[in-house]
Design a protein that fits this description.
The structure is a homodimer. By secondary structure, the first copy, chain A, is of the alpha+beta class. Helix content of chain A is 37%, strand content 26%. In chain A, α4 runs antiparallel to α5 (156-171). The A-B interface holds A 62, 64, 66, 70, 72, 74-75, 85-90, 92, 96-97, 116-118, 120, 127, 130-131, 133-135, 137-142, 144-145, 147-149, 151-154, 190, 192 and B 62, 64, 66, 70, 72, 74-75, 85-90, 92, 96-97, 116-118, 120, 127, 130-131, 133-135, 137-142, 144-145, 147-149, 151-154, 158, 162, 190. Chain A binds a DNA duplex through residues 154-157, 181-183, 191-201, 213.
DNA sequence: ACAAATCCGTTGTTTTTCCAACAGAAAAGG
DNA sequence: CCTTTTCTGTTGGAAAAACAACGGATTTGT
């Protein structure tokens, strides 16, 4: 577990907690580790979830395939983000989506019950952990709302622009790289890939932006 | 405050907490109340949020108007649900959306800091509250993901069917009423109202469903 | 290094949505 | 009760997206 401490101390969930405290908390929370290779399913629709997971490294996609085989990437999990938190609620049923490793990934599992039940004697940082967890979930919540705001744009062009400009703002630079290939970006925005590709090239020809694979640069107009 | 106890005890946030304990907790959390008339803005984009809010009665819409004046209902808040939780994170900036009362509403405000900081001596039910709060947020998270799954459907027809069938499942009946008028439903699903109205009538003519104002009945095919 | 698979841009056709406009029905307000 | 406003369905034309198909470039795997 020791090897993950340096990773974890940079996550929102453990921010403000010292190295030694993280280590003892991992023990207190009965943390376990699993590795996934690229393309491997971490969870499938219909499974029961018992733990809170945090992505230590790699990239996960929360996705859903509907009756007609259309694939939709509902959300992307980046290192330091948690997932599974919605299924900890008692009687919340089974997982509604698939979780797949977009690249080789390392996932830490925590006993949820132990996070929420305070043990002041054993863990002086437990209160901090609870706050952090709350912050982390709130951030996730916010990112879901953001995704909704991209998707609520009516045209593919507007969806692209709202996503790309947000991403530029998030990465604090007009040049940035996105964690999607074209098909994944299309799935994320719920549009057709070829139409989106077309629109991207139009935007480039109009001088709004430039791109090279997954590297984008937005231009002032 | 006493008058809200019977309401609150039925909410997820206070479930499992006795009447007297709720009352003392409201005091501990420095709860305050505000009423909004139909159409009134509870918050506007750009404001700072300091409290966690819970909707005691009525109905709120989280909505966003873009540069071009398109209105999008990002989410609907029903009684017992919380909101504002994403803006409690330190340095999370200002509210990105408007919050408007879709009908006369009553909102309770709680001091967020006091919720997350455990006071075992004063409030024996504080641990329970933290759990409940976590559950509540998780539920909200889930409903956001659900909304994303509606919006990710490619056609207006599929958006309608996925939303309506989920709503039927949620209300546990093939006959149910939805909390939207046509324009609001169109905004919620991010489609054009007239096209959606058209599609609804087609679905009715094909025998898939019936409706009367906001009352819908889905038919087996 | 080579074969296979994937990724990406491009194009033309079909389908769907958007938009504007209107009229009847229903609701709200005085 | 009457007027005004909102709500809903309906339409036709304009615009956009979806879809299918293809070739070249790149990547992957062996």
């Amino acid at each position: 577990m020791k090897q993950y401490v340096s990773l974890l101390k940079r996550t929102k969930l453990f921010s403000g907690v010292g190295d030694n405290d993280i280590l003892s908390m991992l023990d207190c929370l009965k943390a376990t580790v699993r590795h996934y290779i690229k393309g491997e399913y971490a969870f499938r629709q219909g499974e029961y979830i018992h733990d809170l997971m945090i992505l230590a490294a790699g990239r996960l996609h929360i996705q859903k395939e509907d009756y007609w085989g259309n694939l939709n990437i509902l959300n992307e999990i980046r290192p330091g983000e948690i997932f599974g938190e919605a299924y900890i609620v008692p009687n919340s049923g089974t997982l509604m989506n698939d979780v797949i490793a977009a690249e080789a990934s390392t996932v830490l599992f925590f006993d949820m019950e132990r996070i929420l039940t305070v043990c002041p004697a054993a863990c002086p940082f437990h209160t901090q952990l609870i706050k952090n967890m709350f912050y982390t979930i709130s951030d996730k919540n916010k990112s879901l709302v953001q995704k909704i705001s991209y998707m609520s744009q009516r045209s593919t062009r507007e969806k692209l622009l709202s996503y790309l400009s947000d991403e530029a703002k998030r990465q604090n630079s007009s040049s940035f790289s996105i964690p999607f290939n074209r098909q994944q970006l299309a799935d994320f925005l719920s549009v057709d890939r070829s139409a989106m590709s077309n629109e991207l090239c139009k935007l480039r020809d109009e001088g709004m932006l430039d791109f090279h694979k997954s590297e984008f640069t937005l231009h002032e107009m």
